[in-house]
Write a structure and sequence with these properties.
The chain has about 290 residues and is of the alpha+beta class. It has 2 domains: about 1-165, Ubiquitin-like (UB roll) (Roll); about 165-294, Alpha-helical ferredoxin (Fumarate Reductase Iron-sulfur Protein, Chain B, domain 2, Orthogonal Bundle). About 25% of the residues lie in helices and about 15% in strands. The chain has helices spanning about 95-105, 165-175, 195-200, 215-220, 230-240, 245-255, 265-270, 280-294; strands at about 1-10, 25, 40, 65, 80-90, 125-130, 130-135, 145-150, 155-160, 160-165. The strands form 3 sheets. A 6-stranded mixed sheet has the order 4-5-1-8-6-7, covered by helices on one side. The longest helix is centred in the C-terminal third of the chain and has 16 residues, at about 280-294. Bound molecules: iron/sulfur cluster, FE3-S4 cluster and FE2/S2 (inorganic) cluster (FES).
Length: about 290
Amino acid sequence: MEVTLRILRYDPESTSAAPTLTLAAGEPAAGAAPSMGALAAPAAPAPAAPEAGASAGGAATAVAVQTASAPAAAIPVGGPHWVEYKLNVDPMDRVLDLLIKVKADQDGSLSFRRSCGHGICGSDAMLINGRNRLACRIRVDQLGRKISVAPLPGLPVVKDLIVDMNGFFGKYRSVKPFLINDQPEPERERRQSQADRAIYDDTTKCILCAACTSSCPSFWARPEYVGPAAIVQAHRFIFDSRDEGSDERLEILADENGVWRCRTIFNCVDACPRGINITRAILEVSSAIVGRRG
Ligand code: SF4
Ligand code: F3S
Ligand code: FES
């Protein structure tokens, strides 16, 4: 079957400022979850050609479109723009397969991250038909003949589908995502009952793909918000019976940019490829903060 794959391309070599894709309230993008809102053009820089480009904050449909077979001279050089590729694919192909095909057969300059190819490493999260998903986990038969792919919203674009994850991982590190226990090491392992292990089982599944944090309107509005992924990682240790660093972590997350920034919008739960109940984890951490104060 033939599909049309639209990819939001951006080449930082040609412009001075790195844009960040934003999702604005308004008409839902095709295939978008209602909670996600409409795909909007990158906030900056605005593409130069008025007839083909979009002003900052404009609708995605106004972003210049170029076809792979006929590169348009009017496309603003270096500005964010959609490029359309026609591909013959199998319905069971994944979006990652399509991106690999484009890079191999049509445009070697296309840039994207991937590693494991099987939903484990978390490196290929992107905005696919208006929702954050892993490119290696979503198939053509689940999306239809028109597929759009853009970088994760809310994070600076490095090139094409690659976003700068430094801020994301900085927040991850800020919650001390490692076991803290200053007691002398036991002769064998630090033991834990199955019931105690079950308390934080859900949050051990996180693969740090950033799909949740980059789908969160609270994060878009306030990029200092630590974000759902970091809270999930903190939860994994706060509720580990062998850990002694919970007070430190709860103190960090009680900060003005911690858990109270969550407005229970649920985009994060919808985006998580691991099916983690992120909102519940956030509420459990909030309750632990309140309980500690009481
Ligand atoms: Fe990705 Fe889910 Fe972890 Fe968020 S909680 S980083 S969506 S795996
Ligand atoms: Fe954001 Fe998820 Fe809370 S989308 S507001 S972290 S419930
Ligand atoms: Fe590793 Fe998709 S390539 S999760």
